[in-house]
Write a structure and sequence with these properties.
Layout (H helix, E strand, L loop, with lengths): L4 H14 L3 E4 L15 E4 L6 E5 L4 E5 L4 H9 L3 E2 L13 H7 L6 H4 L2 H4 E7 L5 E5 L11 H5 L8 E8 L1 E2 L3 E8 L2 H12 L5 E7 L2 E8 L1 H11 L2 E2 L3 H9 L12 E5 L13 E4 L4 E5 L4 H10 L3 E6 L13 H14 L15
Parallel strand pairs: 1-2
Antiparallel strand pairs: 3-4, 4-8, 5-9, 6-7, 6-8, 10-12, 10-13, 11-12, 11-15, 14-16, 14-17, 15-16
């Protein structure tokens, strides 16, 4: 474990002076997904790791950006706590910095919050090689523009994340999963109806004619809720949700393009091609195979959301949601403010950035 913040700043300053673009990498688990291909030399940050501070009574953990998620899990587990947004791990090397930069959350996201919701503060080395600090270790430190939050999902185009402070939560006392045999339209209606009712529902997904519902929390409340749901208990449910979180289910196998549609949870499912996987109580929908982008965008617009080519397909083209001209201008201004010479992950988010 080492603090390489000063060395990172010096490397960025040198790259700026030489006009040398840098591709930020640590665990490398998300190199070929989420963003576009980046034609820049690797800037390996993997040695910059370690938990800097952990205050279990305050529910706050601070770690260097290249700290593996597995290391953070081990620290939190000893105190019966966890990251409520269930960050995906596309490989054992997945890091907290990459998770924040990509704004990745797992099955509990609609109930446990997103990465962005749990970020309290960040340290960042911008494209000038200057070290900046945003937020802190408590929610009340946030004032004005909450830069630490929009760093989440920035794909490294604004700066090198060197440190992150996160809110953590106690692990639930009990967890139970039930499975109901339903087709997709009925599953959408059922999961939204259950989500509108009181109770500790914290995951709802559909795949291959089966609706998976998970309740987590107080033991009595969990057992009472799942009895009301009916269905069959799922043995080894933890393995299923972990495989869904980490894209390790057979649905995700192979090289076919993987499309992500983020829509209203209750958006109609008619017209969706197959194969299809539904997560986040209907708000996140995954499609595999080659599809016409315009047709998928029409489905997404009808559902009030946006489309991205998450993995595979043409990574030299645009893969993130289409932005309006005012949104594009805002992105350009932010990029110029943080990285005026465009040396950090150029083109990783959009070809015009």
């Amino acid at each position: 474990m080492a603090d390489l913040s000063r060395a990172i700043a010096e490397r960025v300053k040198a790259a700026r002076a030489d006009r040398t673009p840098l591709f930020l990498t640590a665990g490398g688990s998300k190199r070929n997904c989420i963003g576009r291909r980046c034609d820049a030399g690797d800037f390996d940050l993997s040695a910059h790791r370690g938990v800097v501070d952990y205050q279990p009574d305050e529910l706050v953990l601070t770690a260097r950006s290249s700290t593996p998620l597995a290391d953070i899990d081990a620290v939190l587990e000893d105190r019966g706590q966890h990251l409520s947004f269930e960050p995906p791990r596309f490989s054992p090397a997945a890091t907290i910095g990459g998770t924040v930069a990509c704004n990745l959350s797992g099955p509990a996201r609609p109930w446990g919050g997103s990465v962005r919701d749990m970020v309290l503060g960040t340290r960042l080395v911008d494209g000038r090689g200057e070290t900046l600090r945003f937020g802190g270790q408590v929610m009340k430190n946030v004032a004005g523009y909450d830069v630490s939050r929009f760093v989440a999902g920035s794909l490294g185009v604004l700066g090198v994340i060197t440190e992150v402070s996160l809110k953590v939560l106690p692990r639930p006392e009990a967890s139970e999963t039930r499975v109901l045999e339903l087709e997709a339209p009925a599953a959408i209606e059922t999961m939204n109806r259950f989500a509108a009712q009181p109770g500790p529902l914290d995951a709802a997904a559909w795949l291959d004619g089966r609706l998976y519902l998970r309740a987590s929390g107080d033991t009595h409340a969990v057992l009472s809720l799942v009895r009301a749901w009916g269905g069959e208990s799922l043995p080894g449910a933890g393995a299923f949700w972990q495989a869904l979180r980490d894209h390790a289910l057979p649905f995700f196998d192979g090289d076919a393009p993987l499309w992500r549609l983020s829509v209203r949870s209750s958006a109609p499912i008619e017209g969706y091609p197959e194969p299809l996987l539904i997560d986040w109580c209907g708000a996140q929908r995954w499609l595999r195979s080659e599809h016409d982008r315009e047709a998928l965008q029409a489905l997404t617009r009808a559902g009030g959301g946006h489309l991205s080519l998450f993995r595979g397909g043409d990574r030299d083209g645009e893969v993130k949601p289409v932005l309006s001209p005012p949104e594009q201008e805002l992105h350009r201004r932010l990029k110029r403010a943080f990285d005026p010479d465009g040396i950090l992950n150029p083109g990783r988010m959009y070809g015009w950035m």
